[in-house]
Amino acid sequence: MMRAKIIGTGSCLPEKCVTNKDLSTFVDTSDAWIQSRTGIRERHLVSSEAETTLTLAVHAAEKAMADAGICSKDLDLILVATVSSDFITPSTACMVQKELGAYHAAAFDLNAACSGFLFAFHTVDAYFQAGICQTALVIGVETLSKIIDWSDRSTCVLFGDGAGAVVAKASSRGMIASLQGSDGSRGEILLCKNRTNNNPFVSTGKEPDYLTMDGQEVFKFAVKKVPECIENLLGQADLDLSQITYFLLHQANHRMIASIARKLNLPMEKFPSNVDRCGNTSAASIPILLDEMHRTGKLSSGDILLLSGFGGGLTWAASLLEW
Ligand code: UT7
What we know:
Elements: E1 3-12, E2 16-19, H1 20-23, H2 31-38, E3 42-45, H3 53-68, E4 77-81, H4 92-100, E5 106-110, H5 116-129, E6 135-142, H6 153-156, E7 162-171, E8 175-182, E9 190-191, E10 212-213, H7 215-237, E11 246-249, H8 254-263, H9 275-278, H10 285-295, E12 304-311, E13 315-322
Parallel strand pairs: 4-5, 4-6, 11-12
Antiparallel strand pairs: 1-7, 2-3, 6-7, 8-13, 9-10, 12-13
Helix pairs in contact: 3-4, 7-8
Bound molecules: oxa(dethia)-CoA.
Residues 29, 33-34, 37-38, 114, 153-154, 157-158, 213, 215-216, 218-219, 252-253, 280, 311 line the site of oxa(dethia)-CoA.
């Protein structure tokens, strides 16, 4: 059966790098607090109207296609995972298709918050297994900075903007096993309301339209759910922890990653991280990290990688794949 094999990666961060000290000039925070609670030192944020969800996505996609050695007409599917698209319609995926000239590709967006990239990757894998298509572009991209309340120190220090992309091809190698899940009953712990309905029949007051979060609940959810998810996935594939070359987790917080590593009784070297430089880029964090690992020569053919995302929805997902 054909599965999804990653044959190229790419990423793009906005030019502007914002340090913790920069943030402390307009919210009551400090480099020491942010570093000790999250491990974040800096993040990239869009700083002009020329940098958008679309432009970040297209740059990451172009790099992934160059790395894979394919051209846009080879693509038959484009999936974009995002919660911060520039338009409600057209989807970011359709806009990427236009920019790349990938006219043979079906294109749509998918929202599973910070787990979005893996949900999209699993969808591609399912399309490949069903024989629907052969070559797909999967992008995780966010400009979260537009849905953040920049006066709320409890959230604004955590997030960053960016995009990561992979090209996946139907192959007899690649994806080994995957799982995903959702718990909509706990959705209120990470919320961002869409625009208010202002039709003539609805009278609403001004409602908050920025991201709000119960940080401690999200933290507890992730450190419980991710190790469970990893153990289940390994059981499904009949592999054990020692066979995994790297665990690439959603980059939300260094303490969270350390606590998951501890629960699994594994050394931190098995958990590469870039949250210190990128902050939490939601759906983009796993493909950005994967691209960094690939470009810096950390991955070898045959490595077994375990990717795991968790976040808003609530949602969680994990993929086990051969590089
Ligand atoms: O993709 C998933 C997205 N979500 C996450 O990654 C969130 C996961 N949660 C976390 O990472 C942590 O819960 C946070 C980093 C968000 C918060 O860390 P915490 O250790 O849970 O801190 P806290 O919320 O308990 O706040 C402790 C104190 C509070 O002050 P008081 O009440 O003790 O006086 C906060 O007001 O820290 C204060 N505080 C800050 N101080 C300086 C909150 N944010 C800041 C800040 N700078 N930026």
